[in-house]
Amino acid sequence: MSGFRPGLAPTLVVLALLPVLIGLGFWQLSRADEKRQLLAAAEARRIAAPTTLDALLASADPAYLRVRLHGHFDATHSLLLDSRIRDGKAGVELLQPFQDDASGRWLLVNRGWLPWPDRRVAPAFSTPDDAQELTAWAYVPPGAAFELKHLEASGWPQLVNQVDADALWKHLGRNGVPLELRLEESPAAYRSDWPVVAMGPEKHLGYAVQWFALAIALLGLFIYFGLRKGRENNNEPSTRHA
Question: Which pick of 28, 69, 89, 219 has the fewest CB atoms within 10 Å?
Fold first, then answer.
């Protein structure tokens, strides 16, 4: 190895960075696998027959379970979930209380996305007055719990950044279900093509390739400059002798 002399500092840098880059690559691969499993599980539940509200509430893992409901919307207490982007356009999601006739329970139903191109004008929407037969699925957000922000005593509809259904029911003094139900395509729905995950498996695979490429590039540069430095050191005595 007399021709390979990378030096102490470059060696320490490579020893510190190379495991990190490789580790990040494998982490992205594991995240891609998790997303594939999540998408498969969500798809299986979303093509299954709708369950009852009682079965949904009894489930230890209600995420993506479909449920059939019959009841009425509350047009008075609407929430507009802000900063929702679709196809590069700004908008909101419309969430409204819905009372299930069979159980008498209140549910927070997300009716879908609405464009909001002009912030000076309130988003326009309408609420069905008659009884509705709905099919929706339970959305359980990953990570932190769904949380209500800036809910005020008056002024509806209210513009919020995050929503906590349980806090809403306490605010309204109602017996409500602490879940968000996302409406499937129906006459009562607006745009309801929600993505299951914000970042798909292909994105994680792309990031994994980038991390592994950086690791290979780092190792390649380390070897190249080490060999170059070794050749320079080997040539120094003959140069001085000449």
Answer: 89
**Model pTM?**
0.69
| Secondary structure (DSSP) of 131-192 | -EEEEEEEE--SSSPP---S--SS-SSEEESS--HHHHHHHHT--EEEEEEEEPSSTT-SB-
Give the closest residue to 208 by CA, choosing from 63, 24, 38: 24
Q: Which helix (H) or strand (E) holds 100?
A: strand 89-100
- Given a cut of 80, whether residue 4 has pLDDT beyond it is no
pLDDT reported for residue 135: 93
Token duo for residue 64: 């993506």
**Six-digit token pair at 116?**
């909001």
* Helix/strand number for the chain, H first, E second: 4, 7
Q: Rounded distance, CA 160 to CA 217, Å?
A: 46
For the stretch 154-179, pLDDT in tens is: 588 989 888 788 888 998 999 899 89
